Amino acid sequence: MTATALAPEAAVRPRVVANICTHCGLPAACGDRFCCAGCATAFEVIGQLGFGRYYLDRLLDPARRAPRPDDQPRTDLVRHVIADGKGRWELTVAVDGLQCGACVWLIESVLAREPHLLIGRINMTSRRLRLVWQGAASDALMFSGRVEQLGYRLVPFEMGALAAARETTSRNLLRALAVSGFAAGNVMFLALGTWMGARQGMGPATVTLLHFLSALIALPAIAYSGRVFFSSAFSALRRGRTNMDVPVSIGVILVAGLSLWQTVIGGDQTYFESATMLLFFLLAGRVMDHRARGQARAAAEDLLSLRGADVGVLSDDGSIRPRPQHEVISGDLIVAGMGERIGADGVVISGESMLDASLVTGESLPRRATPGTHVFAGTLNLGSALTLRVTEAGAGTLLAECVRMIEAAEARRGRFVVLADRIARAYAPVVHLCALATFLFWYFAAHASFATSLLSATAVLIITCPCALALAVPAVQLIATGRLFGAGVLLKSATALERVAEVTLVCFDKTGTLTEPELRLDAINDPEALDIAAGMAAVSRHPLARALCAAAGPVGVSPGVIEHPGEGLSCGSTRLGSARFCGLPSSDGAGAEMWLTRPGRPPVQFSFTEHVRADARDTIDRLRRMGLEIRLLSGDRAHAVSRIATTLGIETFEAECLPARKVARIAEWTAGGAHVFMVGDGLNDGPALGAASVSASPSSAADVSKNVADMIYQGRNLAPVAQVIATARRARGVMRENIALALCYNALFVPAAIAGFVTPWLAAAAMSGSSLLVVANSARLGRKIAL
Amino acid sequence: MMIMFALLGVSITLGGIGLSVFFWSLRTGQYDDVEGAANRILFDD
Predict the structure, then answer these.
(1) For residue A300, what pLDDT is reported?
(2) Is the sign of the CA dihedral A527, A529, A532, A535 positive or negative?
(3) How much is the pTM?
(4) Could A179 and B19 be called an inter-chain contact, meaning their C-beta atoms sit closer than 8 Å?
(5) Which of A192, A245, A510, A702 could hold A359 in an S-S bridge, CB 3.0 to 4.6 Å?
């Protein structure tokens, strides 16, 4: 008995465990080795080239895009090719779908077969492919075709000026750290010699020689490594402000100058080792600070660079040409295929489909689009291809309007002053006055020599140099952001962590934030009908069909299914699709639904509703236990919002909120003294995200929202929101502890310095002691955060 | 006493070599793709 001998109705019945596609690992039709023709070709190509071991070595990561070749309109890569003027061309692209080291090996090996290609290397950390070749610029398409055939997607990547500047800064900081480390080590080793030598009767000539040697190493090192602080302090002073770098710069320069003078006159009060060590610790803090933000921000930028597929513009000869979004003008005809996001606002000219506008308006249920329907950029086309005439492009779109509102909201938000700067503002004047007072006391009141008075004042400066203070915050930030990064939260803003710690009210958006981005099938008590429907739906990529398959579990694909785009599926006389397609009277249209009709059987309805994320209830309860108020602002209809609010136990909610309304609400709460944490994903949440004192977006959010939000969290859970707040609060606690420790340490040694008891070795020991204490205290945070 | 001068010279030279090697590694981008380098050893070219 073979499957072909059976009637279609019977053939779908047996529940067969679905195959896994040999190439991409996604479910495939039963009996098939591949899920689609693209995967079969990819497998064949890899086999022919002799790279079959790729399949043995690789490790598929379910969190990443499966390497399934797709037929999305390709971006015009040639536009991004750069000529180097010597007949060579260069192109850097982001690779989407990179799973593991085997993928890197496969792509590089395949590219190595190209004779003209000089360099084809992937940076696995940043997931970028760099190509350099000789020949024509258009060869880029040939290379990208080779890679895309394997199932990877290449996205043009343009490194922003900011990212490039960050890379340069990072290198300069590392260089400065290395130089100061080298100097600190060697100078300390020489200084130890003099301290020990003083007890064993080392001759003054030898001591002076060692001091000169120290100066020879320390002064150039200070000049080189100290630039970071000197330039920052100088620019702050020029603008009439002060920051942590001002006392550092004054201290280091004074100490170096005084030590040089002592060396020249043959004295023994040199502080070269303290000065270089101070710079080393401060630079370590700087590097940590930079690292803490750089990694997460680069990852967030990568997420954003994967957007912006070109828009398919229909040209006069009937061909479809990809064009970047910002070059589409009003009046153009554009084509949006199934599963594509529409690139511009427009009116439907031909085609009929269902549109998912959840990212734009927050509406959870798909809407029907027929000729004449107005659609917004960012809407997802669920059904068959649509042709649209662009009505607005650029500044006239809904998107552009949202961006304007976001800018206005952000301007009103005001600048947040980070903890370290607040401390510095109070600390710097106190320290300088203290040093000055010490000098005046010794010189005028105690009638000491000018040199002795100056040495005591310098000792005060060294002891109070905010080395531990400068480490107190970055060390904590490095650990906290690293932990959050591991948990899938990418902090984009430098001050986000400190702002999150102050939050008193959390405001959620509904669609896509509290609920899952996809619809789910409601419970159905007809398993047989479900199996049949799922067997048919398996061939379709329509979201409702996918939801049906997901609910049914693994099923065999029934043969002979024909897809009628935008309407439904048929298999013999069995039909699955909209009520109209199945010949039934239209229902009230309250929700998304599908019907299954079979000859001689009553029709079966499948309805789909949005579901709250699995851990939404737990997260909200946890937030409430943390003493936070919970609010819900949604653009969706009232009954959908109240249903979700009741499920989650949120008492204060508001439905049918336009973006401006959300901003007004947040402004109201802020005026009432609340620190609002806004979590949202839609384009319509963008302005609210900008208006709140801190904001987060899931990685499935609209690009604009991800751009505005202070952090992006990945994965299907809502728990990261609570984790961020908990982590930020603990981090703030440790930061305060660190600052208190550093200040106590200073308070302990300052009287000794004023009294003139501090010798060079004591200063060096006190300074490194306080720095180590602060770093050790920060390390505790790593264990305290249980994620 | 001579040994001290010899040792001073030796230690500073060694430190200088370390520093220049670090600069070289930074300049040639040895830290640009740490993850990739860890994976590449598993595959022969």
Answers:
(1) 66
(2) negative
(3) 0.75
(4) yes
(5) A702
